[in-house]
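Discussion board: Methods & Data

I've been asked by a reviewer to show the raw model output for two of the constructs in my manuscript, not just the figures. I'm not sure how much to include, so I'm pasting the format here to get opinions. Each protein appears as its amino acid sequence followed by a line of discrete structure tokens. Is this the kind of thing reviewers expect to see in a supplement, or should I convert it first? Here is construct A:
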Amino acid sequence: MAAPKKGRRAPASQGHPGRTLILVLIAMAGLVGGMFSTGTLTPRLGIDLAGGTSFTLAAQNQPGKPNAINETNMNTAAGIMERRVNGLGVTESEVQTQGSNHIIVNIPKGTDAKQARQQVGTTAQLAFRPVLTTTAGTKTPQPTPSPSQSGKNGKGGGEQATGKNASPSPSASATAQGRAVTDALKKPSAAPSASGTAKPSAQPTPPAPGGADVPPALQKQLGALDCSTKQSRATAGEQAAGAKPTDPVVACKDDGSQKYVLGPVGVEGTDVKDAKAVFDSQQGQGWIVQMDFTSDGGKKFADITGKLATKTPPQNQFAIVLDGAVVSDPRVSERLNGGNATISGGFTQQSAQDLGNMLSYGALPLSFKIDDETTVTAALGGEQLHAGLVAGAIGLALVIVYLVAYYRGLALVALASLLVSAILTYTIMTLLGPAIGFALNLPAVCGAIVAIGITADSFIVYFERIRDEIREGRTLRPAVERGWPRARRTILVSDFVSFLAAAVLFIVTVGKVQGFAFTLGLTTLLDVVVVFLFTKPLMTLLARRKFFSEGHPWSGLDPKRLGAKPPLRRRRTAPTQTKEA
């Protein structure tokens, strides 16, 4: 019989548990270091814990669209609102539909509630309408600019080097909802034409001779239009925004300086693919808003500018209408191709970013009004957080009492593992705040409390497998290695079921319930990591210590208390000797 090879480890044994423990400690140190390097030492708190503002918006039917309030449009509007609010730098907003015609928007503390209200409540219905005629409003008229060619022809087919074909330079100001835009053209100045030749434009554009193409009814409406106050301009804007795209309308300049009769919509706001604020240092225009159109929108924009270029003032102008107010009315002298344009005219950085944000994230398919606005104070959130932490502390204390009373020395292993799990959970939640916008809300705290029981259950499964092996008569070191494969299967199956439940809950729910599901799923994954990379290696090391290996009464592994069988021994058969007769 061949002798067994020396130096061969049992299949289930672990050769270097110390290295695995060092790896875990390095990972923990790296996560803690990441917290300090980012300056984020505490998790971001949700609205229910830190306080914030909640808006309830009710959808309104639009003229000519009696069935516009439906599930598809409500979900689309909720998605656009969420992107708008996140465009403000808000990383923990909650936007969700409620019922058939309401949307709930939750904004955390620290966000400008007024600015957020404008973003979520403003429909941002953008349209490009041709100007039929215009007249001065009650305020001092401002110069009417014309678009200029903003790019230089590069090589190959006359493509624009900057990709921007038109650079409208309006005396832009606020929208009807009060988004102020500084007017850079306070006095008569020269506005460049599309060919680059400067043309003075110190006076408002005169109306077309005889009011050509303007029906008498619209001329009467134009004469009665009041643009003298913010309230009157807001009313006029609501009426213009509510008109059908195929109908002509009368509208005010957003600063009240001019009144217009506008033709049917030539380009819809949904044809704007993207819009962003850019500081133009090359041509000295300051902050501008660059717009990129969709493929169809670019064709429409080229068509409308091509038609307007053949007409005389003011019918060679197109009005950029935002929420029923004219924010720009540049003149056109040539067809503008390329699918993009630039709006300039004395924007501030904030106003350019606000306009670009709303246009970039599209026009809402519905109009909304704010039915309710509620502010959650930080004091109430602090009370809820305190209650959650007290509940977690009580749950943890009960688990510790049970472990110490039943497992004695093994409770040290469980407590060390719980501590490692807590450190990993806390650091990861803290780092996920600035990384993906994760915020700890009250349901998430509940998920962390539930995770204490899940993690403790994994330790108990492993400890009981070790005890079963000791009851079979094995010593501690073989029991630790033989009990691990059986415990490992049970732990993986249990954690898989918990993670699957958390994933399904995260997918099918919305709002704060997702916080519970996310935390439960995260802690379940960390439970597997801790048990495999910390609890098992630590148990392997402790099995080599006399206190545990000899079954001290306080170790929790006393063979007598466990009712162990006598040690398993092999029976050796004595060799048979034959005597010679």
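Construct B, same format:
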Amino acid sequence: MKKINLFYVLFFLIVNTMSAQIKRIEPPHWWVGFEHQNLQLLVQGDNIGKAEVDLKYPGLSIENIHQADSPNYLFLDLKIEKNAKAGQLKLKFKTKDGKFTYDYELKSRERSAEDYKGFDSSDVIYLITPDRFANANPDNDSFEYLKETGVNRNDDYARHGGDIQGIIEHLDYIDTMGFTAIWSSPLLTNDMPRASYHGYAITDFYQVDPRFGSLEDYKTLSQKANQRGIKIIMDMVANHCGSLHWWMKDLPFNDWINAQDAYENGKKIPTSNHRRTTNQDLYATDYDSQKMTEGWFVPSMPDLNQENPFLAQYIIQNSIWWIETLHLGGIRQDTYPYPDKYFMSKWAKAIMTEYPNFNIVGEEWSTNPLIVGYWQSGQNTPDGYQSHLKSSMDFPMQQTIVKALNQKETWGSGLDQIYEGLANDFYYPRPSDMLIFPDNHDMDRIFTQLNEDITKTKMALALILTMPRTPQIYYGTEILMQNTAKPGDHGLIRTDFPGGWANDEVDAFQNKGLTDEQQDFKSFLKTLLNFRKTSKAIHQGKTKHFAPFDNIYTLYRQYGDESVLLIISKNEEPIEINLKRFQELNLKEQKWTEIFGKNNLELSDKLTVKPGVNLFSNQN
């Protein structure tokens, strides 16, 4: 009996030792029932490259086995037939050292493809830097096995301890403020030695950073947000990874990253020239185009080579895995123009094919609407390029609003800038899908950009939340957070949200310790957001605007029987205006409510316009 037991023990140890040759298989699991029936598995393990692999599972087959340049990788092409069922499949590996089996799970999809509804112009997105929002679980602040340990809230570039649980515990706040979607900067592992808090130097594309929480925490956030009607938008990075990503010690192929030869031989690594217009420029040289797409974004972020078909498939599958795992309501794609643009088109098309009602917004940091509009799907581009990207970030209008409010009113300046800027909407296939914002995590706070002028800041938010766009607001905007002491300083821009840490003297969640100005602005924004939440006229209505006069700009939205009238005034005193110029709007035939003040009025020939924001609705 003892001999038999010893035999089984030895057998168990041998099999598990051989199974341990596999360090990872990615994606870590998959689903049945996708439109695209092919799945490519990255298999990593010591000398796994020469293994034979067999699979017997109804509805599944191995179509191809690819050896990589490194002996420690294998890529398996699987075909999943429409009739394949969810279950555990056994991948049987045979190496020179023996045989072993690896269990791989195929899951059933929890939602139909059509039920993955992306954010749109009916939403207002709350952008959060999670490390700086709220620390609900101090136990996950630091881990000794990670390269950056500890928290230091006095250092703007250290980790401060905010986490996923901190967002979960303040969903009620986000909901009651009137936000309907959350975009968090990346929550995946950034095992970098310094400034890892921002999340954009990812070192594992399938792992939640433990300092933010766990995959289960992320799922809980999505589930609880969805229960409130709040969508979760994931910030993804297809262009680069962190320089300490696990694969950087042993890259699968000789062209997995750009400038790989220089990297592996300790030579100087070229950085991008950041000439993003080479994507559209009819006269761009191959030299400039190559420097743009193949140079590293910064030295700590290796540039991924999406022209390698295995890496390209890896990125596409990774995005689909997260959509399916978290039931996402959208993707924000970082540094959109930097990767190979034809790959980005393929990536977006693959996602939109699987999820036809989904949405993706790409970051193109240009103030030229011709450049930004190039990336929106449906654009009639000179080179025939189609991005399959619904939304692009509207940096041109953001800059226009700030300039208009800061400039003096002269012919062609001031409010004329907004009037002329919105006139460019003829160029966008769908203006309402463009993502507009007062600021974000990479630029000065809007209160700083507007020289800490509260009236101007209210006007900026009113414009952003009523024009035909999809708005995004950065956390802290509601309490006039600013970085005036250090313009351009990212660490200060991403200041801790007061009340997110135990014993904070100021608690903005509970309105404790806020100044009168902060309280007033927060109330203003909350009123505006909750009005917008139910306004079909703002979500999808027709738009008209009138050329500025007497330091006034007027924007009108109308859908069915609902009308919304916004008048912003840069005058320092109330003025009376003649409504004759608005005759085509039939204002006199409607009863109006003033959103700020809730005064009911019937418009006659004259209207007194107060300084700042004047917002009216004909829906009581």
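Answer (T.O., handling editor elsewhere):
This is acceptable in a supplement if you add a one-line summary per construct. For B, something like: The CA atoms of residues 425 and 431 lie 6 Å apart.
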